[in-house]
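Alpha/beta hydrolase, Luteibacter rhizovicinus DSM 16549. Tokens?
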Amino acid sequence: MTDNLPEVLLLHGLWMRGFAMAMLHRRLREEGFSVHQFEYMSVAAPPEQAIARLRKRIRSLGPGPVHVVGHSLGGILALLACRDDDLPQGRIVCLGSPLNGSGAARGLTHRWGGDMLLGRSRELLEHGLDRWDGAREVGMIAGRMPVGLGAFVGALGAEHDGSVGVEETRLPGLAGHCVLETSHTGMLVSADVARQVAVFLRDGRFDTPLAP
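Tokens:
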């Protein structure tokens, strides 16, 4: 816990490690947050293991507010970890997380080796969540720069970030949703994304004209 600075915990996505969040980490520090990384095994270990560890980590950064920012699969895990209200308060920002289920993941399961690539996270990525009814305000940043291989393995819809369709990121119960000109991996190095993350963590809303 860092005195007087809001705590933020970053979660990487599938097939990634914490260093993938390095640029976002630096930019959020420049915005005045105390930023921490959360590493987990996205393929070899069951999601329940990561969720239990994440809840423990959030508690360790309390008792003040602890915000969570998750990219892709990391955003889904963040919501599952924070469904109960027994954790320190805070907001969640998801970056390109297929909260409604991933068409790319479903497509991969029908290809040779797909199950192995998705590992223990397969079911969670395929089906997503029904809605968000937790106490935390949740914001979603989706991308619509179609650069990536996801469209070649599954149906992503008219607008997508190369891996996740914009409609796959819309979940009932979200406090805010905005769409930026970025690809799925490009979110991690985008200055616009970092600024919108900071805005939502402070205010519980985005300040783009595309936000509802």
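The longest helix spans residues 47-61.
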